[in-house]
Every structure is written in structure tokens, then in C-alpha cells.
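Reviewer 2 asked us to include a model.

Predict the structure of this chain.
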Amino acid sequence: MKFFLDTADISEIKEAASWGVLDGITTNPSHVAKSGRNFKEVIAEIFEIVPGPVSAEVIAVEYNEIVAQGRTLAAIAPNVVVKIPVILEGLKAIKTLSEEGIKINTTLCFSPLQSLLAAKAGATYVSPFIGRLDDIGTEGMEGIRQLRDIFDNYQLATEILVASVRSPMHVIDAAVIGADVVTLPISVFKQMIQHPLTDIGLQKFLADWEKVPADLREI
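Predicted model (C-alpha cells):
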């Protein structure tokens, strides 16, 4: 499974990239707004740090504008993935841009049917928002299970990108189900490596090492 970082914060991206496990980046208008920087400059800098896919979202809801913005974003770098919302005008744009060889990440998916339509239109990725579904009392991960079965049934190449991840348990569930990608905030990314028994064990090892005579501690 691939791990994407969901942010437009350059410092977070540099930190995560240094870990050696980062496969890509997803951004959205809210993330870019928080950065307080020029949109194209932020996206271009991210591309210099991350060699994998970087999703950049259009700010349009009409077909012609979505297509025009998608082409502009795709021209920034070869690893750009254009994020398009799963609306009717978006589906038309997905078909057009994907036929031009532009990779598409379909965002704001909340049902398997939305994701299936996007896949049929030519999306490279579909991004079901599981955390937001959990927030309204629906099990977001159930939709991922259904979507995995649907895509496997019809041998669809579109990748399932699990978004709106709120905890390491979401990541575990996504991996067990067989999702292709999870995109997560850096806080959850860090939680994935943490375990209290690891900390306790490390402290014990270090304490025991201090008991070894100094002349025998050379490594």
C-alpha cells in the first residue's frame, strides 16, 4: 500500500520525505490557503521534494473551466495528478483530461457508486472520504470494502485512495481490505510508528547498556 501525505506545508513534506516511506502528496484548496503562499509556487516546490504523484485540485465546477485548469496544473510537472470533484461536470472533465493522458484523482467521494462512475470516466484514483462519513454515523470503511469488491469484480485499474483518515486504525483497516493508497495528515503518520512497548523496551535496552563497562561499549 502506498502512503501519501495530505498537506501543502513544505516543512511537513520535507520531514515525511526524509523517513523514506512517502510515496506522494495530496493537497486541496484549504491546505494551500493555510500556507499563505502563491498556489503555483507551492505546488512547484512540492514537486521538487516529492518524486511521486502530487495531487493539485481545480477550483471550478463547470466543464470548460475544469478542463482548462486541469491542463494548466498538468503542465506544472510530469508527476501532477489533477484533483476533480465527483460532480456531473467533473465526470465529463475526467473523461476529456484522462483521454489526453492526464492523471486524475477524483475527490469528495462518499459512496461506492460515485467512485465507480469516476473510474468508468477514466480516473486514475478515487478518494472516498471515510472520516467524514464516520462523523455522521456511517461506517466509512464499509464503503471501501464494497468498492474493493466492485473494482475487483470488473478488473478496474483505478486505484482506491482512502482519504479523510483520522487514526492508525483507519490505515490498518484500509490495508487489510486492500486499498491501494491512504493519504493522511502528518499527525497520524507519526502515530503509526509509535507504540508504548517500543518506548519501554528502548529505555530498558539503553539503561542496560549503561551498565556495560565503558571499555566494552565501543561500537
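Residues 174 and 206 are 35 Å apart (CA to CA). The chain has a mean pLDDT of 95. We have added this to the supplementary material.
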